[in-house]
Amino acid sequence: MNSEYDVIVLGTGLKECILSGILSVEGRKVLHLDRNNYYGAESASMSPLESLYTLFGETLEGEKYGRGRDWNVDLITKFLMAHGRLTKLLIHSDVTRYLEFKQIEGSYVYKKGGNVYKVPASDKEALASSLMGIFEKRRFRNFLIWAQSLNFQDPKTFQGVDPEKTTMTEVYKKFGLDSNTAAFTGHAIALYLDDGYLEKPCADAIKRIKLYYDSLSSYGKSPYLYPLYGLGEFPQGFARLSAVYGGTYMLDKPVEELVMENGAVVGVKSGGEVAKAKCVICDPSYCSDKVKKVGQVVRAICILKHPVAKAGNSSSFQTIIPANQTDRKSDIYVCLLSNLNQVSAKDFYLGSVSTLVETNNPEAELKIGLDLLSPIEHKFISVKDIFEPTDDGKASKIFISKSYDATSHFETTCDDIVDMYFRITGSKFDFEKIKLNLDEAKKQ
What we know:
Main location: cytoplasm
Strand content: 15-25%
Number of strands: 19
InterPro entries: FAD/NAD-bd_sf, GDP_dissociation_inhibitor, RabGDI
GO molecular function: GTPase activator activity; Rab GDP-dissociation inhibitor activity
Number of helices: 12
Family: Belongs to the Rab GDI family.
Organism: Trichoplax adhaerens (Trichoplax reptans)
């Protein structure tokens, strides 16, 4: 380990592994360390099932949930948008050769009163949906047709809306959409975390809606994909990519100290040895003095023996419970996976519920989502602090990722990766450049 590197990466979470892989492809000398003896850190998939019980301080007796090795349980469940940035990154970086995906069968939204409705997959489905009344259906259909046909380069398609000036509130008003329709459009289709987008120019919201339906058009049932054997496959895929391009990985390696000179990091001490580096990338757990707590997320991991009737008995689905349907400030996210996704034993299902903590009783805040999944055979509850770096890292050369939020999709994760890449390199992330670098390497 006594050597000099361009980058030392601490922690094998998804964000750290993606950046490690990308920087390796770009020709940087990378050393990657993790104090754990498994890949994934906070975004790991636990297997066998006994390891999940051990992590939560419990003991699994026998094989009442089938063979333990048939389980791959995400500590944080998230789905990919089929045409989203993470999917593009996986394709352009060639990591897809290490992974196999399956489409998520359903995308649902919760409405006050306890019912769950399929998010309309087209303007035709909008007319057939029981999510809205008959007149609202037609208004939503007109909105959907307009949003999907809007061309940002062609003002003739704007229909009196200026994407850079007209707010989303004004757009909803123009099409006569009510607050319930606005809620599921903004939160279950555009995937906003709160309603701040309503008073901003509508361009970003329209792009998000287009992304949802472009992703949906590839498969038909839902816009989401998920890797077989769990999200822990991602960090391992990028670790392999990094190794192919000269990156060095070491698991079960405790980090004793970040070595600083004149306010900037110059190396990492582990096992009494110091590896020198021009910069360090890490998750918040490695730099507690350089992060601030911005909230908490509560998550439930649930073992089930049944599909969910309200969600069409789908073998896999995502349901978003918009905040305004539950008198909360934050949405609640519910996911279900099955042995078809290679994450559970046959005849069992794996559910997850997550949200941002707003009260002194976090588990109770998950009740609506847990009720949707019930009856539950066994559940594991975790409450994790959410951290963000206190500065951009440019002076200290220590670049820290944000903690994973409560969302059940990867869009906010990609925001952080792109932002970190810019802070580290000074360049905007270019998906095509990654592809060109790989193509060039293959020729050599």
